[in-house]
Amino acid sequence: MRREMVRAPVLAAGGIVLRSGETPLIAVVRLRKRNEWVLPKGKLDDGETARDAAVREVVEETGHEVSVHEFLGTLVYESGGRSKAVHYWRMQTSGEQVYELMDDVKAVEWLPLEAAVERLSRAYERLFLANVGPLALAAAASSTAQDERPFVASGVAETPARPTAFGTTAQFKEARAAAPAANPETRNTDRATTRRNRRRNLVQRMRDWLRRAA
């Protein structure tokens, strides 16, 4: 009885690339051969790390220099009879295109999250971007707005993250801890400040977890 050999998955890497602006935009690229809209990504070269491959492929396919930030997750799907695993990082660019697009890419467009999800040709990429896109936008917003004051965790408990079929998610819940009574004269101001800080702290803890997972 013959045994079928298990073929190793094809390894690839890419980026959820954000361009700074009043409304952050996400890069999607159009393949010349199949005329499909996809996320920028590509296979690893021999001896290349996934992170290095992600940067190289994004630069080649978008023509933009990028900075690399949190690891966002791994998308696994079937391609040509083999499993393909694509690792994605959040990336950022603020400049104009500086390189010509590689021959395999026909065009690159920068779209808001919802429009980028709709533009993608492949259902599994649409699902992946719909789930990790908000994380990338929240992390980018926090990175831009974060002040230099040290963060002291208080009243927030983190539950373990769990991998999903299309990436990685982290769940956070707010602990109902008793707090000292506020001064009535400053209560309204403090309440608004607390809400802003709470949202910022939750996003910061999410970013920290994603960075450790990279």
How would you describe this structure to a colleague?
Helices cover 33% and strands 31% of the residues. Mean pLDDT is 77; it is low at 147-189. It is globular and about 55 Å long. A hairpin with a 2-residue loop joins β9 (162-164) and β10 (167-169). It contains 4 helices and 11 strands. The chain is an alpha+beta fold and 214 residues long. It has a domain at 10-122: Nucleoside Triphosphate Pyrophosphohydrolase (Alpha-Beta Complex). It has helices spanning 50-62, 113-119, 123-145, 187-213; strands at 10-19, 25-31, 37-38, 41-43, 67-79, 82-93, 105-111, 156-158, 162-164, 167-169, 172-174.
Succession of helices and strands: EEEEHEEEHHEEEEH
State the name of the first-level CATH class of the domain at 10-122.
Answer: Alpha Beta
Largest sheet: 7 strands, mixed
- Number of helices, counting only DSSP H or I runs of 4 residues or more: 4
Measured between the Cα atoms of the first and last residue, the distance is: 42 Å
Which architecture of the domain at 10-122 does the CATH hierarchy give at level 2? Alpha-Beta Complex
Helix percent band: 25-40%
What do the pLDDT scores average to? 77
The helix/strand class is alpha+beta
